[in-house]
Design brief:
Elements lengths: L5 H16 L7 H17 L1 H10 L2 H17 L5 H4 L6 H9 L12 H9 L2 H10 L4 H27 L24 H17 L10 H18 L3 H6 L1 H16 L4 H29 L1 H12 L6 H15 L9 H8 L16 H30 L6 H17 L9 H19 L7
Length: 446
């Protein structure tokens, strides 16, 4: 087995820092700064790998990366008064300038400082994705397993949180949810989604040669642990999204079964598949019974509840904001300020919304037509890359990345998974696996 290169070790270290320190979101600027400084350090240390990786990027992917970087940066460029005063919903800003003695130059963003902070978050995926294109494929597989290991760390850390009923090991205790698994995240939905991403990697990445004979056993154990972790987050969306990697793994097993020419081998593999499925559910059931049977009942109750979700009221007011600032947007990172002006009195609660709880609506509010078009371009590219990978020798590795990105895209309908640096790093790893193994042939060194 080949030793990992120094660039690979640096990228893995950055992902670990992002997962351990970057799961708190915008409320924890010092922790985010730690991750961003780590990203800058990696880019400086891997200047050669960064340059070669950028040259190797597919042109479409490179264009999407450049456009994603330019969007918040251009929003922070000052404009003369005749330009910015014509933008939608800038009357209040203009009146405040008049009251203070005149109209000055202003950028498109109503709060350029927040927009620049939002732009700085892009350093983390950039420092993973671009140097990653210069790494060996064997190093990328190791990177994927490192992410899966971080998922197990979250399960172990979160188990302490669950068993202590939320009194110990909480890194972000601002939301009181006793007995819920948060791991290294502040949002349990993000925890669950990260564990779903780790599940995709654990089920679909190739195992080291020395573990190949015990492949089914190893994957079942890892899968059961990660699924238990997902369920203990009590996140409904994550619990459903876990079906994506599990279904992909089932399809892969079925494909292996039916591709064998001899009937005896087919029958033997069919029995192995059935036993594996039974073992998976047995291990899962035992883990749940031991860990927290009552808490799993609470998750089931959350699915059965017929009360109206408070997010529906937020979406109602958020769509008004989106229409109000269309087509220019209010600036990346400005949702909280904008929404407090537009939130209707009948929808007020004791808690601040903070986010739109639908990242697509929030991006339209903050970036208008340009943001919507960019998101659509990314979704089309990911879908096309996943389809293109169907003929690649490493398609199952590529599709582990597709599963991660699909889960993120679906959870973005009811949450905001990419608003923390840990999941941003996970998305970069997923995109890296999808494009490298979907667009290239497997290297002979693996």
């Amino acid at each position: 087995m080949m030793r990992m290169s120094k660039p690979a070790i640096a990228v893995i270290a950055l992902v670990a820092v992002a997962v351990l320190f970057g799961g708190g979101g915008s409320k924890y600027p010092l922790a985010n700064l730690t991750v961003q400084l780590a990203a800058l350090t990696v880019m400086a240390a891997l200047a050669g790998s960064f340059a070669s990786g950028w040259k190797a990027l597919p042109r479409t992917l490179a264009v999407l990366i450049v456009l994603s970087l330019l969007l918040p940066l251009l929003q922070a460029v000052p404009l003369p008064p005749p330009a910015w005063t014509l933008l939608p919903a800038r009357e209040a800003v203009e009146q405040s300038h008049v009251l203070t003695g005149g109209t000055a130059w202003m950028p498109l963003s109503i709060d350029p400082h927040r927009t620049l902070i939002a732009a700085s978050a892009l350093l983390v995926p950039l420092a993973i994705l671009v140097p990653g294109w210069s790494l060996r494929q064997s190093d990328l597989i190791t990177l994927g397993w490192a992410v899966a290991a971080l998922g197990l760390v979250n399960v172990g850390w979160g188990t302490l949180q669950v068993l202590s009923n939320g009194e110990q090991a909480l890194l972000y205790p601002e939301i009181e949810m006793p007995g819920v698994l948060f791991g290294t995240f502040a949002n349990r939905n993000s925890t669950g989604l990260f564990l779903v991403a780790c599940l995709a990697l654990a089920l679909l990445l190739p195992l080291p040669t020395r573990l190949a004979r015990a492949s089914l056993f190893v994957r079942l154990v890892l899968g059961a642990l990660l699924i238990v972790g997902v369920l203990l987050t009590r996140s409904r969306t994550s619990s459903v999204l876990a079906l994506i990697p599990v279904s992909l793994y089932a399809v892969r097993l079925g494909h292996v079964w039916w591709s064998k020419p001899r009937e005896k081998e087919r029958r033997g593999r069919g029995i192995a598949i059935a036993l594996s499925a039974a073992a998976l559910f047995a291990v899962l059931a035992a883990g749940l019974a031991f860990a927290a049977p009552g808490r799993i009942g609470d998750l089931a109750a959350r699915f059965a509840t017929d009360r109206v979700d408070a997010r529906a009221y937020i979406w109602d007011d958020a769509t008004y904001s989106a229409d109000k600032y269309w087509p220019a947007g209010s600036g990346m990172g400005t949702f909280d300020e904008v929404f407090q002006l537009d939130e209707s009195l009948e929808n007020l609660t004791q808690r601040r919304a903070g986010r739109a709880h639908n990242d697509y609506i929030e991006i339209v509010i903050e970036a208008g037509f340009a943001g919507a078009a960019l998101v659509l371009a990314w979704l089309v590219f990911i879908a096309w890359a996943s389809w293109y990978a169907r003929r690649a020798p490493g398609r199952w590795i590529a599709w582990s990345g597709s599963a991660i990105l699909l889960a993120i895209a679906l959870q973005s309908i009811t949450d905001y998974p990419l608003r923390n640096l840990a999941m941003f790093a996970g998305a970069a790893v997923g995109l890296l696996l999808l494009t490298r193994f979907g667009f290239e042939r497997l290297e002979a060194t693996r």
